Amino acid sequence: TRADALPYDLSGVRMVISAGGTREALDPVRYLGNHSSGKQGYALARAASQRGARVTLVSGATSDPGEPASVEIVHVDSAREMQSEMTTRAADADVVIMAAAVADFRPTAVAGAKIKKGDDGPSPIHLDTNPDILAGLVADRAQGRIPRSTVIVGFAAETGDADGGVLDHGRAKLRRKGCDLLVVNAVGGGKAFGTEDNTGWLLTADGRETGLPFGSKTLMASRILDEVAALVPDGQV
Ligand code: CTP
Ligand code: CA
């Protein structure tokens, strides 16, 4: 099996990984964005490449995560650009990982010129819902537009709330998204965004749940890739 062949257990596996945050334009100089640093997705790309995978990184906005060697990097801004790149590239991938923080909404209209302050005060920003890239990839696979054997991985950053704990939200999201593996990060209280360390669970569609002890994003990446390697069908490459 692959696990016996470490450290090159992902030799020849074609992997497409999204990372960073999307930016949704308001006008030529402004956007709606988020605090994603891109560090987890970049750490995954670096670790996968070191284990022999052929990696393409589709990167939104990041805060200097350092460019991994031997990885093809495609830069995108908006969720719709990211969707287009991910969908095209997933068609010949063995593994697709959505580590990006995709904006759920985008401004309905993008002003062609810089919005001026004017005399009347601010006007409201109207929003449309962005496409769900991950759910779209799962649907594409079900409809045969990407190979049935492609392993699809999602991420979820969750806090507990009145409806349930982090793990409850993670389980519900795994079912809703229909991916094979969901990486659930516990966030809030300064955890995860922009920090060096993560904590959480790996949930698989077949019901396995593995705790991720507190550790670096590099360590987290290697734990995630162990699980991915186990999901890639033998003889795939
Ligand atoms: N995702 C995506 N496209 C979107 C939103 C999210 O592909 N428009 C992906 C993320 O990259 C991540 C997973 O879906 O892998 C879960 O993202 P998350 O924001 O936690 O889920 P949502 O479905 O947007 O639910 P909510 O934000 O309401 O919790
Ligand atoms: Ca979201």
From TrEMBL:
GO terms for molecular function: ligase activity. Residues 10-230 form the DNA/pantothenate metabolism flavoprotein C-terminal domain. Pathway: Cofactor biosynthesis; coenzyme A biosynthesis; CoA from (R)-pantothenate: step 3/5; Cofactor biosynthesis; coenzyme A biosynthesis; CoA from (R)-pantothenate: step 2/5. Its EC number is 4.1.1.36, 6.3.2.5. It comes from the Bacteria. In the C-terminal section; belongs to the PPC synthetase family. This is Coenzyme A biosynthesis bifunctional protein CoaBC. It comes from Gordonia cholesterolivorans. The gene is coaBC.
